[in-house]
Specification:
about 290 residues, mainly alpha, 17 helices, about 70% helix
């Protein structure tokens, strides 16, 4: 019996479907409500806390390094101070409560309790078995957390593992390409698939002057044109970064196999579309302007 080979971008497509539900919790009012009950009320402190808590009560250096595209000064404004308000284990418990509420709200009780959700959780967890900890701080930290018992939470947990595994590899690819955190944001926005400059600056701590300086720097490198659009060279570099990210992230999807990846992508896309239709993200989040 032969096993079908994975298509070159099959892992990327699968990740994108699963990552939609993972990423939604950063914008969900459920997250702000649960963290607010612990005393963490600043939206940026909430963001740092829920993503970094798996690493323990770390300081701004490790968080800035792992997150990559945030301004250090912004991180240091909230970390480690946030841990004096809510300890990491409290944050993790609150995050899981928020995710539970969010998924029930966005997907509905029928989807949360469906056989398809159980199947998706099993497939995603199986894929995550193929992940590796080396040089992947955010994945490794989340891999040490217990798997929730309820299928919809287990699915979200597995999606988080796969997202952070790919994200850690993506940082490696960006570093090798000579794109620092701000350069990465500017060039991603120029593809039309990233967050707008307004959202990037508001959430990552960069000023519009720093954003413009980065554009000028990238123009001087031949990656952007005078209008801020990717040049042929810039588009090729972004494509190479994604290709290298795919290569570094191939193991979990190879472990799951082509049929499993196809089925997980199918299921994940259904859940993602339902979440998007329910307004999981701000309408003005993505774009070039």
């Amino acid at each position: 019996m032969t096993t079908a080979a994975l298509e070159p971008r099959a892992g990327r497509r699968c990740h994108n479907a699963l990552n939609t539900l993972h990423s939604a919790h950063y914008f969900a009012p459920d997250t702000g409500r649960e963290l607010g009950a612990l005393g963490v009320t600043d939206p940026r402190a909430v963001n740092f806390a829920v993503r970094a808590a798996a690493m323990g009560p770390v300081g701004p250096g490790p968080v800035t390094a792992a997150f990559y595209n945030y301004r250090y000064d912004l991180v240091a404004r909230h970390v480690p101070a946030v841990w004096a308000v809510a300890a990491p284990d409290q944050v993790l418990a609150a995050r899981l409560r928020a995710v539970d509420s969010m998924l029930r709200r966005l997907l509905g009780e029928d989807a949360v309790r469906s056989p398809e959700m159980t199947e998706a959780a099993e497939l995603a967890l199986r894929a995550a078995e193929g992940c590796s900890r080396g040089a992947r701080p955010l994945y490794a930290a989340h891999a040490d957390l217990p798997v929730p018992e309820e299928p919809h939470l287990a699915y979200w947990h597995a999606a988080t593992l796969l997202r952070e595994h790919r994200g850690d590899g993506h940082v490696t690819a960006l570093l090798a390409a000579g794109l620092d955190g701000l350069d990465a944001l500017v060039t991603h926005t120029a593809t039309g698939k990233g967050m707008t400059p307004r959202w990037n600056c508001a959430t990552r701590g960069w000023s519009r002057e720093e954003w413009q300086a980065a554009r000028e720097r990238l123009t001087g490198r031949g990656l952007l044109d005078a209008a801020g659009e990717l040049t042929e060279r810039g588009a090729a570099q972004r494509a190479e970064v994604e290709h290298e990210t795919d290569r570094l992230d191939a193991a979990p999807y190879a472990h799951l196999g082509a049929e499993g990846v196809a089925r997980l992508t199918e299921l994940g896309a259904v859940f993602a579309r339902r979440a998007l239709a329910a307004g999981a993200f701000p309408a003005d989040l993505l774009g070039k302007d």
